[in-house]
UniProtKB/TrEMBL annotation:
Protein name per the record: Adhesin domain-containing protein
Organism: Tepiditoga spiralis
Lineage: Bacteria, Thermotogati, Thermotogota, Thermotogae, Petrotogales
Length: 309
């Protein structure tokens, strides 16, 4: 009889363990819904999971938490007056953490667990901040009245159809790729390793783009712009500008613009190809108020936009 009771107890214990463990495995989606009527700020930080946020038809913002690694961290959701603060952290004190890590990620270290993707669609905000450690930050239809910040450590940043007074993008290892990108104030982009490609980019005040290793490609209409690149090529298709300064160390610089416009050119480079004419070391031409200043240790090419295929 005692053995039978023990067997039944063990079976129950196994069933409870299986059910509990299954619930942990299968419950990989959580959702939050809250009103947007008074919200002016958004702050999102992710270490591990995919977080998808979009503006629904109910005048509310819905957040879906999706984890593909079967590691389930705690999500701290807090709404204080006009602020959304959504922070995801890995709770190592959770009694199931070591078990989950052992079963699903026994060959991975803690850093490899930190991955995630943002896909964000919102309406107008005063301030929006997106931070990720490892993964991609995808921003779509973001319109902020004051400031938009996106920071990533390992992964890409994709801002599409973005409009904000001030924009700050920072990436350590990854690409920054954009289309329909508008800034009515100050824009600053910093990237340590990876390409920067901005299409249909417009800025009315000042733009600063710094890249240490990778190519920079812009199709832009700007007021004042400063670009610095250490390793990589620079390709600028300038529809309109008042002042543009470029500092290039290792790589070719290609500037495509309208030859019929009047510009002041100040170029220092070992090899200069200026509208199909070759120059060496220096080229100074004063024609108008708009100024293009380039310092490069390699080849600089100035080309007329009409020569493009």
């Amino acid at each position: 009889m005692k053995e039978l009771i023990n067997k039944l107890f063990i079976k129950k214990l196994i069933m409870i363990t299986v059910l509990l463990f299954s619930s942990i495995i299968l419950s990989n989606t959580k959702s939050f819904e809250f009103s947007l009527s008074e919200i002016k700020k958004i702050n999102i930080e992710s270490n591990i999971s995919n977080i998808n946020i979009y503006y629904s038809e109910k005048n509310s913002l819905i957040c879906f938490y999706e984890n593909e690694l079967n590691i389930f961290p705690d999500i701290l959701f807090k709404k204080d007056f006009d602020l959304i603060n959504l922070t995801e952290t890995l709770n190592k004190n959770n009694p199931f953490f070591l078990l989950k890590k052992f079963v699903f990620n026994s060959n991975q270290n803690n850093n490899s667990l930190k991955s995630g993707t943002f896909t964000v669609m919102t309406n107008k905000k005063d301030d929006a901040i997106f931070v990720s450690y490892k993964g991609n930050i995808k921003l779509k239809k973001i319109f902020t009245n004051y400031r938009l910040i996106a920071k990533n450590t390992i992964g890409n940043i994709f801002p599409f159809s973005i409009s904000s007074k001030n924009i700050y993008l920072e990436n350590v290892n990854g690409k920054i790729l954009s289309n329909n990108f508008i800034s009515n104030g100050e824009l600053e982009i910093k990237n340590d390793r990876g390409d920067i490609d901005l299409k249909n980019f417009s800025n009315t005040v000042f733009s600063k783009i710094i890249n240490k290793e990778g190519n920079i490609k812009l199709t832009a209409s700007v007021n004042k712009m400063y670009i610095k690149n250490v390793f990589g090529n620079i390709s600028l298709y300038l529809k309109k500008f008042n002042k543009c300064e470029i500092n290039q160390s290792f790589g070719t610089t290609l500037i495509v613009l309208n030859k019929n416009q009047k510009y002041d050119y100040e170029i220092q480079a070992p090899n200069i190809i200026f509208f199909n004419k070759n120059y060496t070391k220096k080229l100074n031409i004063k024609n108008g108020n708009n100024k293009l200043k380039i310092f490069s240790k390699n080849t600089v090419i100035i080309q007329d936009i009409s020569n493009l295929d």
